[in-house]
Design brief:
The complex is a heterodimer of chains A (396) and B (262). Chain A is α/β, with parallel strands linked by helices and 396 residues long. Chain A is built from eleven helices and 22 strands. In chain A, the strands form six sheets. Chain A has a seven-stranded parallel β-sheet with strand order 11-15-10-5-8-9-16, sandwiched between helices. Chain B has one domain: HUPs (Rossmann fold, 3-Layer(aba) Sandwich). Chain B is 28% helix and 31% strand. In chain B, strands 11-10-9-12-8-1-6-7-13 form a nine-stranded mixed β-sheet, with helices on both faces. In chain B, strands 2-5 form a two-stranded antiparallel ribbon. A two-stranded antiparallel sheet of chain B has the order 3-4. Chain B is globular, with a radius of gyration of 22 Å. The chains are: A alpha/beta (396), B alpha/beta (262). The complex binds flavin-adenine dinucleotide and adenosine monophosphate.
């Protein structure tokens, strides 16, 4: 169980050494050797052009894999409203289910949420498993994981998908830990290896500097959380056949965590993770008052407001708006960075956005390296002008 | 309060750049840092100890040089540290990592609170905290931005969600993961640094924590990485310079053309 190098194939090209993030490869007399720092991350295996590096692993299936069938989507809802990512998961889930020739089911948990089931069918589900119970009123990991695990054990889906939301990313790891199965976090690409019936899960690591494709060959279900705003929604069709299966919760279940209060973030009119457009401000804005300018731009675009750490640390805007390595990761259709230099920690949170516009007066700012459109100029002149032009357009 | 903090040593991301010629990662030097969120975790543990008394133990699973991260923990005020290190731990995914950490934590004995960072910057999964909680059979509260109250076994916390904050209450023992907003980490004191320098870092192997071979490291990891690649940055990278109103016109035109704006 380790990285092996076939020295007869190794040419000493050093590609593996460059790919290794842990400095675990030494080149001695034109041959590669793995040292103690190796974490078996396998980055070297995939870069080797000579197939000289391989990873040895014997791992027997511990389950009867063929018992597991079907694709499931967890339909996250809060206060009776479905998370936007659920519809994206339905779109993606349909494709995966088609490739595997199986059905797509949705698990809908909550209190007084039965009315949401029809919409899930219209948007792509073949079947909805519904649990409507007062104990599921609040999104609490304990009771949700318990219920989900019971249902997964009963119906045995081969794939379970959930949104990489704050709740999804704390609930689903619990479920995976109970089931002792693999879980891939925050995927941005999913595909099926039809021959082996495996889910190919692609996700950014190291802040999006590298991508990894991950499989879970020997355990079921294969589980993934999926980054919002990446997948396409399914077509809505009101004529789809309905199948709704009602389930119950375990009677003895209690939640050890209780929700006392919810404090709405009023500074955040549009949720950053779900926003189609984000306008973000950095130190270049100079002072707190100038965020007004960003608000106006946001209004004209129906956008959410983001910020760099420098702006947050200066106290101009709250931490909930921070984008980047120590803040949020976002993937909107359009990201407009104003007065942001583009430090690698900031890029880590936004570089997978579809289209990036950078406005910066320094032509050498690194943000321009990731921008589709770079505007070199003074933001105090340019931003109000964009706002005005857009307003004109919206009005007329 | 007996508090355990899970910290991980990670490569400093700023060191990672892409070589356009070979399309591979370039690492200048080998600098490692304590995962940024874990620094907040550690600070919070020390603050709780300062208020309520007790003990802070920092634990990490990693290669031998991860001892450096534990020294940093001592420097800012951790009382005890423990390094879980064994060749058999290598190649662990989040399930195997949390299994190993929970076995180490069980060996440490009773605890009131385990604090993890929200996520690491290399793995980036945010899964280890919730998975440890499950393995240890205690509640999890993620994205904690404030500890509001600790009183006779009860603990009240504020956590960040997409559209605001939730205030939740639970009982000790539990696991929490923390975000940056929770505190402002201190810099190590001179005395702390001296203590760290002299400290011997205890190491536990798989045998020491009674970890079964098929649950740790590569063998205990259900997920496998099949490929790692550098994403193609297909940014056209068009620049607009010159008179403001002209470039704004051009920009909006382009965004419409690309159907980014309608
Ligand atoms: C462990 C760690 C974690 C971090 N996490 C994050 C994170 O999550 N998110 C994050 O953003 N950062 C993070 N950082 C900080 C990051 O390294 C940068 O310091 C930060 O992103 C810089 O913010 P900025 O671009 O707003 O400021 P600066 O780097 O100061 O850039 C300001 C830019 O504005 C431009 N400008 C100034 N005036 C004007 C004008 N009138 N018109 C146009 N342009 C103008 C300047 O040319 C400059 O490029 C982290 C750092 C560390 C060490
Ligand atoms: N090898 C490790 N040793 C100790 N703690 C870890 C390790 N890996 C992850 N953690 C903890 O779990 C948190 C989440 O990590 P991750 O799931 O990798 O994003 C981190 O912030 C740490 O607190």
């Amino acid at each position: 169980m380790s990285i092996k190098i076939d020295l007869s194939k190794c040419t000493g090209c050093k590609l593996c050494k460059k790919a290794c993030m842990y400095n675990a490869i030494d080149i001695v007399e034109k041959k590669a050797y793995v040292n103690d720092k190796c974490t078996l991350c396998a980055a070297c295996v995939s870069v080797c052009k000579y197939e000289a590096i391989f990873i040895k692993k014997e791992n027997k299936p511990i389950l009867n894999l063929s018992e597991y069938k079907g694709v499931w989507v967890f339909a996250e809802q809060r206060r009776g409203e479905l998370a936007g990512v659920v519809f994206e998961l339905l779109g993606e889930g349909r494709k995966l289910a088609k490739d595997l020739k199986v059905e797509l089911s949705v698990v809908l948990l909550g209190e007084n949420i039965s009315n949401l089931a029809d919409e899930l069918i219209y948007c792509g589900a073949d079947r909805v498993y519904l649990v409507d119970d007062p104990i599921l009123k609040d999104c609490l990991e304990d009771v949700y994981s318990n219920t989900l695990v019971r249902m997964i054990e009963k119906y045995k889906p081969e794939i379970v998908l959930a949104g990489a939301t704050s709740f999804g990313r704390s609930l689903i790891p619990k479920v995976a830990a109970i089931l002792e199965t693999g879980l891939t976090a925050d995927c941005t690409g999913l595909d099926i290896d039809k021959e082996n019936r495996l889910l190919l899960q692609t996700r950014p690591a190291f802040g999006g500097n590298i991508m990894a494709t991950i499989i879970c060959p020997n355990r079921r279900p294969q589980m993934a959380t999926v980054r919002p705003k990446v997948m396409k929604r399914a077509q809505r069709d009101k004529k789809r056949v309905k199948e709704i299966v009602k389930e119950t919760v375990s009677k003895s279940m209690v939640s050890r965590v209780k929700l006392l209060d919810f404090i709405e973030d009023l500074s955040e009119k549009i949720n950053l993770e779900e926003a189609e457009i984000i306008v973000a401000g950095g130190r270049g804005l100079g002072k707190e008052e100038n965020f007004k300018m960003m608000e106006e731009l946001a209004l004209s675009l129906n956008a959410a407001i983001g910020a760099s750490r420098a702006a947050v640390d200066a106290g101009w805007i709250s931490y909930s708006h921070q984008i980047g390595q120590t803040g949020k990761t976002v993937c909107p259709k359009l990201y407009i960075a104003c007065g942001i230099s583009g430090a690698i920690q900031h890029l880590a949170g936004m570089q997978t956005s579809d289209c990036i516009v950078a406005i910066n007066k320094d032509p050498n700012a690194p943000i321009f390296d990731v921008a589709n459109y770079g505007v070199v100029g003074d933001l105090f002149e340019i931003v109000p002008m964009i706002t005005a032009k857009l307003k004109q357009r919206n009005g007329g | 309060m007996n508090i355990i903090v899970c910290i991980k040593q990670v490569p400093a991301t700023t060191e990672i750049k892409i070589d356009p010629a070979t399309n591979t990662l370039v690492r200048e030097g080998t600098e490692s840092i304590v995962n940024p969120f874990d620094v907040y975790a550690l600070e919070e543990a020390i603050r709780i100890k300062e208020e309520f008394g007790g003990k802070v133990t920092a634990i990490t699973m990693g290669p031998p040089h991860a001892a450096e991260a534990l020294k940093e923990a001592i420097a800012v005020g951790a009382d005890d540290v423990i390094l879980l290190s064994d060749r058999a731990f290598a190649g662990a995914d989040t399930l195997a990592t949390s299994h190993t950490l929970s076995k180490g934590i069980e060996k440490l004995g009773d605890f009131d609170l385990i604090i993890c960072g929200k996520q690491t910057m290399d793995g980036d999964t945010a899964q280890v905290g919730p998975e440890i909680a499950e393995k240890l059979g205690v509640p999890i509260v993620t994205y904690v931005s404030q500890i509001k109250k600790i009183e006779d076994g009860h603990i009240q916390l504020q956590r960040m969600v997409e559209d605001g904050y939730e205030v939740v209450e639970t009982e000790k023992p539990l696991v929490i993961t923390v975000v940056k907003e929770i505190n402002e980490p201190r810099v190590p004191s001179l005395r702390g640094m001296m203590r760290a320098k002299k400290a011997e870092i205890p190491v536990w192997t798989a045998k020491d924590i009674n970890a079964e071979e098929e649950k740790i490291g590569l063998l205990g990891s259900p997920t496998q990485v099949v490929t790692i690649f550098v994403p193609e940055v297909s940014r056209k990278g068009e620049r607009f310079e010159g008179e403001a109103d002209k470039i704004v016109e051009q920009l909006i035109g382009k965004l419409k053309e690309d159907k980014v704006l309608n």
